[in-house]
Write a structure and sequence with these properties.
Layout (H helix, E strand, L loop, with lengths): L1 E3 L6 E3 L6 H11 L8 E8 L6 E7 L2 E2 L1 H4 L6 E7 L6 H14 L23 H13 L9 E7 L4 E7 L2 H22 L11 E2 L3 H36 L4 E8 L1 E8 L2 E8 L1 E3 L5 E4 L7 E6 L8 E3 L8 H7 L2 H7 L4 E2 L16 H7 L4 E14 L1
Parallel strand pairs: 2-3, 17-18
Antiparallel strand pairs: 1-2, 3-4, 4-12, 5-9, 6-8, 6-10, 7-8, 7-18, 11-12, 13-16, 14-15, 15-18
Helix pairs in contact: 3-6, 4-5, 5-6
C-alpha cells in the first residue's frame, strides 16, 4: 500500500501505478469537504466518470450518485457445480445454446419477466417511466464487459460465472439523481462543478429518495443475475448432466452503504470495488481470457474493508479498437471458446491489467481461495 498526500486527506493506494486521469479524480475525492479519514484506491483502478473505478470513498452525511455510477449494483455471481470435467464439445454447445436464450447487448426478452420486486417499485416518476422496459430487461446480459462463462477451478470443479447489473433501469436512475444533485450543488457550491461529484445530504428528501432508488436497483441487479443464471444453468444442466449446485456467491460492486469505520457512521461508496469483511467471500474476475479468483476478505480497515472488483483496464475501449488486431485478440483467447469479436476488440485480454499482479498487490485485503481458468465465454 502506498500513501499519497495530494489533498486535504490522504490517499491510500494498492495499485502498482495510477493513470493521470484516475489520479486527478482521486485527488478530487480527497478534497471533498465531507470525505472521511482517507481515500482508498484499489489495485484495479482506472479513470471513470467523476470517481475512479476501483475507488472507495467514505462520506460523512452525504451520498453521491456519480460515486456509485450508472450501472448500479453491477456485480458477479460465481457458482460451483458438481462437475469435475467438461468436454470441448459440451462447452461449445452450452455457449451457443445460451446465446439463443439470454438476450445480449441492447436486446431484451419479448415477454415481460416475473419478479416479486415489481410489486414494490418506488413510487417516483423515473421508476414509473422505466417499469415496462425493466420488466423486459430482467434476465438480460447487456454489453461491454458483461459475460457468462464456464470456468475450471483449481479445486477440481467446474464453475459458472455471471457478470451483469441493473441494465437500463440503473442507468436512468443514476442519471436522474445525478442531475438532481447537480442542480442542488449549483445553489450550495459545496463541490466544484468540474469534479462531477455533486452530493445529496443523506437525511434530505432528495438523499433519502436516491438511497431508496439505489437499493431498489441493487435488488433488481441481483434478480437480473439470478434469472440469467437460471437460464444459463438450465442449458448447462441439460447438456452436461450436472444436477447439483455446491456453492453460490453473489456480490455487487457499484453501490453506497451506511457503515461504521474508525468509530464513525459513514456512507461508504464502492465504485468498482467489492466489500471484503473478515471471512466474507468475494470474486475478483480477470479478463475474458485470463484467470479469476474466489477470495476471502481479511477485513482490513485501511481499505474500508474493500478489495478490487476485477483486474482493471489499462487501455480505453476506443484505444483498444485502434491498436488491437483480430490476430492479436484471437491469440490471446487461444484455447477458450467464445463467439468471436465482431470487429470489437475492446474486451480483448490485453486491454486489462495482469490479474496475478492485481491479486498480489492486495494480499493484505483478501486471501485467494480458488483460481478459476476460463474454458468458454459468452460475451455481452
Amino acid at each position: 500500500m502506498k500513501l499519497l498526500n495530494l489533498g486535504k486527506i490522504p490517499i491510500k493506494s494498492w495499485a502498482t501505478d495510477i493513470e493521470e486521469g484516475a489520479l486527478i479524480q482521486a485527488e478530487n475525492l480527497s478534497n471533498l469537504p465531507f470525505a472521511f479519514k482517507h481515500i482508498a484506491i484499489m489495485a484495479d483502478v482506472h479513470e471513470g466518470y467523476g470517481m475512479p473505478i476501483g475507488g472507495v470513498l467514505a462520506c460523512q452525511g452525504m451520498i453521491i450518485p456519480n460515486a456509485v455510477g450508472v450501472d448500479i449494483g453491477c456485480g458477479i455471481m460465481a457458482v460451483k457445480t458438481d462437475l469435475t470435467e467438461i468436454s470441448p464439445e459440451h462447452i461449445k454447445k452450452v455457449i451457443d445454446t445460451a446465446y439463443k436464450l439470454i438476450p445480449v447487448g441492447f436486446d431484451h426478452h419479448q415477454k415481460p419477466q416475473e419478479w416479486e420486486g415489481f410489486n414494490a417499485i418506488p413510487k417516483t416518476k423515473i421508476f414509473k417511466q422505466e417499469l415496462d422496459s425493466a420488466r423486459h430487461q430482467l434476465g438480460t446480459l447487456g454489453g461491454g464487459n458483461h459475460f457468462c462463462s464456464i470456468e475450471k477451478g483449481n479445486d477440481g470443479h467446474i464453475w459458472l460465472m455471471i457478470h451483469s447489473g441493473s441494465r437500463n433501469l440503473g442507468y436512468k436512475v443514476a442519471n436522474h439523481y445525478n442531475n438532481v444533485a447537480k442542480k442542488l450543488n449549483e445553489k450550495t457550491n459545496l463541490v466544484p462543478k468540474n469534479f462531477n461529484l455533486a452530493p445529496l445530504a443523506i437525511d434530505s428528501p432528495e438523499g433519502k429518495e436516491y438511497f431508496a432508488a439505489m437499493n431498489y436497483c441493487l435488488d433488481f441487479a441481483k434478480a437480473n443475475r439470478e434469472l440469467i443464471f437460471k437460464l444459463f444453468y438450465e442449458v448447462f444442466q441439460k447438456i452436461t448432466g450436472s444436477n447439483k449446485i455446491l456453492q453460490k456467491i453473489d456480490i455487487h460492486h457499484n453501490y453506497a452503504s451506511p457503515e461504521s469505520h474508525y468509530g464513525e457512521e459513514v456512507i461508504v461508496h464502492r465504485k468498482g470495488a467489492t466489500r471484503a469483511r473478515l471471512g466474507e467471500l468475494g470474486i475478483i474476475p480477470g479478463s475474458m481470457g485470463t484467470s479469476s479468483y474466489i477470495v476471502e476478505g481479511l477485513g482490513n480497515p485501511e481499505s474500508f474493508m474493500s478489495c478490487s472488483h476485477g483486474c482493471g483496464r489499462v487501455i480505453s475501449r476506443r484505444e483498444a479498437n485502434r491498436v488491437f488486431t483480430k490476430e492479436m485478440a484471437d491469440k490471446a483467447m487461444k484455447g477458450i471458446y467464445f463467439k468471436g469479436w465482431d470487429g470489437d476488440y475492446s474486451e480483448a485480454p490485453m486491454a486489462y491489467k495482469d490479474i496475478e499482479e492485481v491479486i498480489e498487490n492486495q494480499k493484505d485485503l483478501v486471501k485467494p481461495l480458488v483460481k478459476l481458468t476460463p474454458l468458454g465465454v459468452m460475451k455481452g
